[in-house]
Amino acid sequence: MKMYIILINDIPDTLAPVIAAHASLACYKKFQNDHRMSTWIHGIFKKVVCITCAQEFNQLKNETDYVLLTESSLDHKEVCIAFCPREEFPKKFKFLKMWTPQNT
Question: Among candidates 70, 72, 75, which has minimal Cα distance to 57?
Answer without folding.
Answer: 70
